[in-house]
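Progress narrative, work stream C.
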Amino acid sequence: MSGKKTDKEKPDNLNQQEPAGNGQEKSEIKVKEKESQPEPTFKVSEQEEIEYLGQEREEKDSVCAAPEAGEPSREELIQKLQAELESKNRELEQLKKAVEELKERFLRAAAELDNVRKRAERDKEEFFQYALSDLLRDILPIIDNFERALKSAQAETDGQTFREGVELIYRMLLNLIKKYGVRPIELHDNKFDPSLHHALASEESAEVSEPLVMEELQKGYLIHNRLLRPTMVKVIIPKKD
C-alpha cells in the first residue's frame, strides 16, 4: 500500500494550464509562414506596359493643359500679350516722334535766342555810338546861325544886327534843350534850397531870419524831374549874435 500512488497524487493534466507565452509563439509562427509564402505574379507584355504609360501621360497632359473654369486658354494669353506688345511698340514710336519734335523745337529756340543776343549786342553798340545823333543834328542849325552872326558883325559898326543874332541863337538853344526835357530852375520867393542851389558866397544880415538867395550867379537846370546842374547863387544869411 505504501508503494502505490493514490488518485490524488496523480497529475491532473486537464487542470494544468499552458504557459502564457505558448499562444503568442504559435501566432508568430503562423505570420512567418504566411510571409514566407510567395505572392502571386502577373505577367504584362512590353507592348501593354507602353500603352499603359502612354495613356497615363496623356491623362496628365490633358489635366495640366485644361484651363480652369473662367481662365483664358494658352492661345488667348499669347494673343493678349502680342496685342499688348504691339500697343507698347506704337506708344514707343509716338514717344520717339515727340522727342524728335521737341529736339527740333529746342534747337530752333536756341538758334533764335543766340540771334537775339547778337542783335542786342549790336544794337547796344550802335546806341552808344549814335545816341547823341538827334541832339547833335539839332545843334547844327545853331552853329550855322553863329556863323552868320559873326559874318554880320564884321560888316556892321553899330553891332545891332549882331546882338539880334545872338539873341536868336539863345532862344534856339533854350527851345532845343526844352525839346529834350531840360528846363531852367526858377527861383521862388528867393528861398535857398540846398537840393537845387549851390552857395558860392554869403553875407550876414540882421534883417533876415533864414537864408535867402541874394543873387543868381549861374543858372541851374533840371532834366525832367532830376537835377542836371544846381544853380550857383550868392546867399544872405541871418547875422550871428
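Work stream C, second folded protein:
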Amino acid sequence: MAAETSIQLTQSDELAERIRARIQDERLTDGAFFMTEADLAEEYDVSRTVAREAVSRLVAIGLLEARKRLGLIVRRPDPLRLLQLGLPSLFDSDQDIAELSMLRYVVEMGAVDLAIHNGSDEQCQRLCELAQEMETAIRSHRPEKISELDIAFHSLLLQMTSSTLIAGMQRVLVNFFDTAYQDYQSDAATGERMIWEHQELAAAIRDRDSNRARTMMQMQSRFWLDQKPTDSK
C-alpha cells in the first residue's frame, strides 16, 4: 500500500507539472475554462485518484479553481499569499529563519535606492514623522506601539519603491518577524540605537543620499540578522 501511495504521489506531481506547463504554454488567462477532472484523467491516461491529487496541488497554490458541475477554472496565483502561507512552517527552524532574515536584508537594501528615486516628498516627510513617533513610543515604553510604528515605517519604505510586489513581500516578511520577535525586550541602549537609526535612515532618504541610506539600513538590519526567534510553543 505504501509503495502504491508513493507511485500515486509521484504521478500526481508529474501530472500537476504537466498541467501547469500546459496552462503557461497555451497562455490561458484568469477565468478560462480548463477541463473537468474526469476529462483530465482520460486525456492524460491516469486514474481519478491521481487526477484529483494533481488538481488539489494546483488548487492549493491558486492556479486552478474546482467548481461543481462546471469543472476546472484557471486562476492567477497570488505569490504574496503563497509566501504568507508558507512562512509559519519555517517558524521553528533557526536555519530557515536565518535564510528569511537574509531575504529581508536583500529586499530592503535593494529597496533603498528605489525609494530614494521613486518616493515622493510627502512620503519622505511621512517617513521622518514615523521615526519621530517611534522615538516618543520608545521613551514612553510602549512596546506594542513601537512594533506598530516599525511595521508602518518599513512598509512605507517599500511602498516608496513603486513596486506592488516588493511592498507586499516586505509587508509579509515584516509581519512575520514582528511575530517571531514579539517577546523581545530591548534595553535603554537598544532603544536609543533604534531611535537614532530610524531617524538617520529617514533623513538620508529624505535628502536623497543613497550611500548614507544604505549604511543606515545595514546597521539597522543587524537586529533581525543576529536575533533568534521567540519560541511560540
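The longest strand covers residues 64-67. No further action is required on this item.
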